[in-house]
Write a structure and sequence with these properties.
This protein is of the alpha/beta class. It has a 5-stranded mixed β-sheet.
């Protein structure tokens, strides 16, 4: 599935322009502890999280994450958006909670 398709499935809203929406999503991980993400996520996966700080983007860079989805309609601060835009990592917000998003 492409990031653009993922956005539709999760009722998402793209936060940053310039992200690669054609990138393939090959898995997923739902976590708020970035150490858990680094230990268990596969490359080209989507990261579902409630954390909005820049560390989420830095972790996504290291783990080759295709997109980051913020649960429960959360919106990250400007610094997080700027870093993700620079790295072309899609930031998406969805109104659903972690449980619902993991199922979708």
């Amino acid at each position: 599935m492409k990031v653009s398709e993922l956005i539709r499935v999760i009722n998402g809203k793209l936060i940053n322009d310039g992200a690669d929406l054609e990138r393939e999503v090959k898995g997923g991980c739902g976590a708020d502890l970035m150490s858990d993400v680094l230990a268990s996520i596969q490359p080209e996966a989507v990261l579902l999280t409630g954390l909005c700080n820049p560390q989420v983007v830095r972790t996504a860079q290291m783990a080759d994450v295709a997109a980051i989805v913020f649960v429960r309609g959360k919106n990250p601060p400007r610094e997080t958006i700027e870093l993700a835009t620079q790295e072309r990592i899609a930031l998406i917000t969805s109104p659903f909670g972690m449980f619902e998003l993991c199922g979708r």
